[in-house]
Amino acid sequence: MSLVNGAGQAADPRRWLSLSIIIVAVFMVVLDTFIVNVALPSMQQDLHAGFDKLQLIVAAYVIGYAVLLVTGGRLGDLYGRKTIFLIGVAGFVAASAWCGLAGSANALIVARVFQGVSAAVMVPQVLSFIQLMFPAEEKGKALGIYGAVLGLGAIAGQLAGGLLLKADWWGLGWRLVFLVNLPVGALAFLFAAKLLRDSRAPERKRMDTVGVVLLTAGLGLFIYPIAVGSEYGWPLWAFASLAAAAVLLAVFVRFEHGLLRRGFSPLMPTTLFRIRPFRIGMFIALAFYSGNAAMFFILSMYLQNGLGSTPLQSAYAFVPLAAGYFAASLLAPRLRRRWGNRVLQAGALLMAFGYVGLIWVVGRESEPGWLMMFLPLLVAGAGQGTVSTPLIHTVLAGVHGEHAGAASGVLNTFTQAAQALGIAIIGTLYQTFLAHLESHGRTMQQSLIILTALALLTFALLTALSFKRKASASRTVDAGAAPVSAEPEQ
């Protein structure tokens, strides 16, 4: 019996080879999220960049990625997923070359925005390809490979950054972390052009261009003054920018609600936030992802600027964090099916314990080596992976029917925006602590206290989410109706 794919056609015999090609492209995107952290001090020295510019180099990529994720998916529906995927890969390669050749911090920041935009165009097509290429009995395995690659990218990003900076081929230094994308992206483009089948959505929805512009401008005006305000002594324009951001984001919400009332497809359907589990889930995503992104950023700065580690030594220090994340991300979905949301709560506590262990290690009189940090980072990484992998399913479990796709897009956008906010806000606090305490160790301790608080907030919100669902299930049973879900302790 021949297999039938998600589009009701005979499954492509080259589907696993095609998957390997599109996974390479996703791996490249994830790699660029993490590989930059190790190279930041080298960029700072070479480009004479202030700490604020370093924050923007990281955050600019995430902002460009965040605000266009939903739009990227819509472009694939309208103009063909293969076509848009290839445009995204080509754009990513071109933007990577721009990053690698940038002669100033400002040029690099602009290039990183375009790199993020290209990633947002590319990545949504990958999940669409998996849904369409694979029959139901193979889809779980394909999605499992996709998830594992995301975790592997965190490990490889840190190591690859350290190794490339150590190699310093042709004297290019930190530029290699971007230029390495050129041969990888070119091969992915050529094979994808040959192997992938094109497809479009039967029902084409209009793009919410105004919503994209409002959200992009609002986030930009909010994050930029947070990242650079302290560097310039919080001038009047910084507060004006924050006020303008508040106005634009309010207009965005009102505009999105108006689109929904008129029957159009908004970038962010406001009715989703009336669903309590989804609303709590957004706060969970904000606390969890902002802390995670900030952790990678400040740890790299502490290791290299504070302890004087080389980029390769810094990369080694990230290995236990990433390895714990990777291993836990593979186990967490299986554990969640048995124990429910208690697994995510345990993961949040593991994160907090790991950060407390780091506070103790960093506070020792002798400068801690990366071996002393191994166990706390391993525990923190395991906690991150335990929460991260099942979190999307947990948040979206209360959303059904026609809103499922929109909710997934909003959650992805929100998680990316949370990472940019975490880097901007906690990165700024790190720099402020350093200016007042004049000690990298005490500054890292203060920053880790904030990360511990965010981990505990994640635990509290996950507990609240479970409590609300239990209460809802109890009311349903009391009313004489059958429970909606058989999952343990949602």
Automatic annotation (TrEMBL):
UniProt subcellular location: Cell membrane
Record's GO cellular component terms: plasma membrane
Record's keyword terms, sorted: Membrane, Transmembrane, Transmembrane helix, Transport
Transmembrane segments: 21-42, 54-72, 84-103, 109-130, 142-164, 176-196, 208-228, 234-255, 280-303, 315-332, 344-363, 369-392, 404-427, 447-467
Predominant location: membrane
Domain Major facilitator superfamily (MFS) profile: start-end pairs: 18-470
Superkingdom, natural source: Bacteria
GO molecular function: transmembrane transporter activity
Membrane topology of this protein: Multi-pass membrane protein
CDD domains the UniProt entry points to: MFS_MMR_MDR_like (cd17321)
UniProt xrefs under PANTHER family: ACTINORHODIN TRANSPORTER-RELATED, MAJOR FACILITATOR SUPERFAMILY MULTIDRUG TRANSPORTER MFSC
Protein name: MFS transporter
Species this protein is from: Cohnella xylanilytica
